[in-house]
Write a structure and sequence with these properties.
alpha+beta; five-stranded antiparallel beta sheet; transferase
Length: 605
Amino acid sequence: MKKFNLYPKLFLSYFVVIMISLTSVGVFSYWSSSNELDQIVEKQLTQVVGNAAHHTDLYIRSYERSMVSLLSSNDVKRFVDLPEGETGYPYYEARKFIKELIIEPAFARNPEISNIYMISFNQNAMYFYNDSVGGSFNKEEAQQQLEFFKSNTKPDGSLSVLNHSILSGQQNITLVRQIRGLSSTEPKGILVVELRAAELSELWKGIDLGEDGYFFITDDNGKYVYQPDTDKTATELPEAIRSQVLEAGPHAFMATIDDKTQMFMSRRSTYGDWRLVVAMSVNELRKPSDTIRTTTIVVGCFTLGIALWIAFRFGRSITGPIRILRSAMRQTEQGNWVQIPLPEHRDEIAELMSRYNLMVTRLSELVDKVYQAELSDQKSQMERQKAELQSLQLQINPHFLYNTLETIVCYAVIRDSKEIYEIVKALAYMLRYSVQTNLEEITVSNELKHVMFYLVVLKHRIGREFEVDVSIHPDYLLNSMVRLTLQPLIENAFQHAFADGVEDYHYIRIDAGEDEDKFWVSVEDNGLGISEARLEELREKLHTNQLADKENGSSKGIGGIGIINVHRRIQMVYGEQYGLQIESEVEKGTKLIMVMPTSARGKNG
């Protein structure tokens, strides 16, 4: 096939793949699906019966809990302790309290309760009906009911569920247990709650088991408790399934009922020794397998014809555009793609790849030229940026230097003291530190040292000591920051925050910290603060990187050139996402925050 063109290769490959796929599906699908469907159906029946048993148990357990209020009632306990034959005031008083405080609220909360009654071992009885027609029973009938319930309950007070009702013509589920009185821990009577079976059957009506499938419940004696055909309720199970249903085995079994072969699955309920059973038609169970077999043959033949037609069309759709692209790419042999190796065979794809490689060669030459041009432009831009940063650094307000020199002259004229030595020494360090114009960052500790010498000079300028509160944790002292940014912010505070003079309560605090991937250094004072309008103006200038003009810069508010100079130099070193932030309130003070990346640590000693 190496000498064939692409189209016959594609068509033959599609044909082989389609035939293999259809044959595999036809041979194995019916064989495997039949076995798997039987397992799935059995699992489904097991889950249906298990869920039905679970919900039935939960339903009865909820009423078991609701009987606790009756068991814990002192009125009920006093009733079962009444002496035999008591029909006087104590009996009617107990009946009144039990009905008003317990029975009527229970009927209101649970309308599915048909009736509630209790019989003491002293042959006293009370009957309460909820929208049911019922009456009282004589002493002999009550005694018969008592004997029946005593024989079907346990002295430990556990719940028993019976298919028994004192009302004729109704199908009720009876919940019964023995109860104790106040005078003894031994059982003294019987408490009975009857539920309408129609309410219980609502739990099972939603089960879909196919056209001939159904769900039923039988008691321990082999009689129907619930059956979709109401005529069969309370009748005996067919002999064909009776023994297998009552054994409640873990696996499904098959039996023929009314000339229909059905699969049955039986499970025992926790309450009442009931058996919950699901029945499904075997013909319906086998129907999917037969359908799969027939469908596989029909669909396989149809799919083969469609697939071959699609293969023909798809092959043409590939080879046609390739021939067009081969002719077009001869006219456009340019691009920025990597060369690809050529295959051994020669077809349309190979020709396309050959033309593509020629185009890649031309494009690589063009890209190289563009890359060299971009490198040259980037280098020029970095030089301009460096020059701009150095220019900004040299724009620090020179008035500080002039004022300091004037102070030195005054000291020299008036007296000969060592204050002049301190000023000159501090000024010499500051001048050496300030004239360095390289772009390298400096550590926080070096910036603090520069501020310390500035304060030495400031002490002689203002005629008093002023200590700056440095709250920076030692872990941050080796973090890097832009050179000559901290001292301008300190000087700004003395010029504008304390414009009316430095008082004893004034302070300047320097702090630093990290938030996620950012390192910040703040300068905070408790001076005059900034008005809201001026604050918004300064923030706008920081956002647009505009230097303050001479008229509105340093004479009002917080200053202009120095603040924006610091902001711009931080951005020049670390990027546009960093810089200076301002927080202030009038008469409360101002906080300037320099934001820098945390990755910059200890680059300069």
